[in-house]
Design goal:
Two copies of one chain form a homodimer. The first copy, chain A, contains nine helices and 18 strands. Chain A has about 400 residues and is α/β, with parallel strands linked by helices. Chain A folds into two domains: about 100 residues, Immunoglobulin-like (Sandwich); about 260 residues, Alpha/Beta hydrolase fold, catalytic domain (Rossmann fold). The first copy, chain A, has an eight-stranded mixed sheet with strand order 11-12-14-13-15-16-17-18, sandwiched between helices. In chain A, strands 3, 4, 7, 8, 9 and 10 form a six-stranded antiparallel sheet that branches. In chain A, strand 16, helix 7 and strand 17 form a beta-alpha-beta unit. Chain A is globular and about 70 Å long. In chain A, about 50% of the residues are buried. The N terminus of chain A is likely disordered. Chains A and B meet through helix 1, helix 2, strand 7, strand 8 and strand 9 of A and helix 1, helix 2, strand 7, strand 8 and strand 9 of B. Strand 11 of chain A pairs antiparallel with strand 11 of chain B.
Chain lengths: ~400, ~400
């Protein structure tokens, strides 16, 4: 009787809003993606009226600008499906093309925006990606805060990870400043980069020191990520003003001042690391050399190293001079990671030659693959354990 | 020359990853939705091969379980479009149906999950929804944290809004505990409810006291929202165990203990408010009466009031007795909001009779519409200014 009444109420509640009704109406019984024990993955889409359904995923080889696709096959009920070969342990992204129209998977609510496109995502564990899972370990706090940047004349949004135990401790913590690439923002590392999961897991295993991770927004014209600023729900674009013209580097002390004024941190060179991917690697390279004796740890992940500084903003000149000073002042770790097929591979090798000539010691990590998040998550997983030891 | 090199580099960077390539390839020139000055909205979808495209939106009348739709029309290039009448100022949600397949809008990256379905969203300002926009006002901090619930034997995730100035002040702040409905979680109020925007804007206008808002997870079997727990990217469901069986209410002191142990708060009855929508209204009703003298402010938003407590869990019995004690102890504000067409309307009127008999004074707010987020955002916008005065 008790159960009966509760069940009737649940039915009532289930029927609540128009939105909830739609939620139920969307074909709740289909599982897609289904990750099998052997790490092959089955995708399913009920589309009886479609003539052609293709799957595109980040594990498929792409040709230049054209992403790879696989044709899905239709059964007698109108269900399209495709089963992959076993996939690597990673966070993977995909979407469907239904008669030429790009569609997300209506049976997978997990989506991540990359620049102006939204992808469905899933995680294949059992390898690298075990670090990307939310495991039963102590979890840090992730906060979205706003700081004043007098240099840019803006109040700006920032994402801050504080490690487990931060709030209840009296200790001072070291800080990793972690910078995104072009088209990214203060959401990139936390969403696509799985930063909080990687740090939680590394710290729980005793493989990384508890540290604060500060994920700033490197587009100096922006207050915040698309949809999170006073510009409203604008359409994101890849090409933004004030990204690689020196503005962000000039304003970086505003961020350090905010962090060191608002968190219990080791406000000294040995307690500061800076790393970034692509444009964020470029920013990290320059910020670490133009503010002397500020960072003891530098990480360049597939860094967008400019082929030629001759015609660039003044802040990007005198590189050798400032790098030589950086060598002289000393750096505990200078870390360079690049994929073999990255189109920036050549520029990174030229940069290594330059460092060699200046006598800068560094760790060099060459990985498979190109300019992809899979590498950047891996680099973070390898770089973080080397910090603050 | 300087510009030329930078542009060449930008092109290179733009072509970076397979994902970025896909981002560009998705038809960047289409604007959808386009919100016009008169608040009519144009939706567009390029689907030359589709035979029929429908639009469904939360502003359309739905019939029982079937959401309303509008037929879109196709031009010679294969672009489907539809223009609405002027819409109300609100956060609106919508999706497309392409030859029967539910699709999100590939030109709108703004998506919110409601239970197991993902909708595109947009905001029409110029009215109520001006409170839902990110305006140029001081912004509070939104943190996702984890707390221990010894009662439930779980470490659980919680969303906490701290008002602008909290970090730099020494003051103690009052706390609003804000609870979600069935199928929701600790993300519901912050995403669909626009809580941080509403509070930022009300506080900036001097209409609400600066307060902390704690958004807990009322599904007592869950560690966290779908995708945010150790269960991984599981498919969300509406019907969860331990939602209305007394477990959450029993564990609520764990949340209060965490908040009062971790934030600078007014840890007294006059500094505590509790409010919730639907199931969260049900939780608020019961939590406020079973912990005597704990809350001075109670808000029931479209509360899922049980028609009959006879056969329910023990925690839901002796309602009159505990309510009478609540009346005797005194409450500064008891607030009830319900929509005229809400299917819970009748039960809320019965509950009002009950309160009248017990001599409990309350503010009663009857709105248009039913059991919808539009009402819950409005209720929060009206309720918050009444607190802690």
């Amino acid at each position: 009787m008790k159960k009966k009444i509760r069940f009737a109420l649940l039915l009532l509640l289930t029927g609540f809003s128009a939105m909830s009704q739609q939620a139920l109406w969307g074909g709740a019984e289909i599982t897609s993606p289904e990750i099998r024990d052997d790490h092959s993955v089955v995708f399913r889409l009920m589309a009886p009226n479609a003539k052609e359904v293709k799957l595109t995923g980040d594990w498929m080889p792409s040709q230049g600008w054209v992403p790879g696709t696989e044709n899905m096959t239709k059964d007698e009920k109108g269900m399209w499906s495709f089963t992959t070969a076993p996939l690597s342990s990673d966070l993977h992204s995909y979407s469907f093309q239904v008669d030429g129209l790009r569609c997300t998977d209506p049976n997978n609510v997990y989506l991540i925006r990359d620049v102006a496109t939204v992808f469905n995502v899933f995680i294949v564990g059992g390898g690298n990606a075990d670090l990307y899972l939310i495991n039963k370990v102590p979890h840090g706090t992730v906060a979205r805060r706003w700081y004043d940047s007098p240099t840019l004349g803006l109040t700006r949004r920032i994402t801050v990870y504080t490690p487990p135990g931060y709030e209840s401790s009296k200790e001072k913590y070291p800080v990793l400043y972690l910078l995104h690439g072009m088209g990214g923002d203060e959401e990139a590392w936390i969403a696509l980069g799985r930063t909080s999961q990687i740090l939680d897991n590394l710290i729980a295993k005793g493989k990384a020191q508890p540290m604060i991770v500060v994920m700033s927004n490197g587009n100096a014209a922006q207050e915040a990520a698309p949809g999170e600023s006073s510009l409203g729900f604008l359409k994101p674009t890849m090409q933004l003003p004030k990204t690689m013209d020196g503005s962000f580097e000039k304003s970086f002390p505003d961020i350090i001042r905010f962090v060191e004024g608002n968190y219990r941190v080791k406000a000294e060179k040995s307690g500061r690391a800076i790393a970034g991917l692509s444009m964020g690697g470029f920013h990290s390279l320059h910020i670490s050399r133009i503010y002397p004796n500020t960072f003891d740890y530098v990480g360049l992940f597939s860094a967008a190293i400019l082929p030629n500084e001759k015609d660039t903003a003044r802040i990007y000149k005198n590189i050798d001079q400032t790098l030589a000073a950086q060598v002289k002042n000393g750096v505990k770790l200078y870390w360079i990671g690049i994929g073999k097929t990255d189109f920036l591979y050549k520029y990174n090798q030229e940069y290594r030659d330059r460092l060699d000539k200046l006598g800068m010691k560094y760790i060099y990590r060459e990985s498979e693959g190109g300019h992809i998040w899979s590498n950047w998550r891996t680099y973070l997983s390898e770089f973080a354990p080397l910090l603050f030891k």
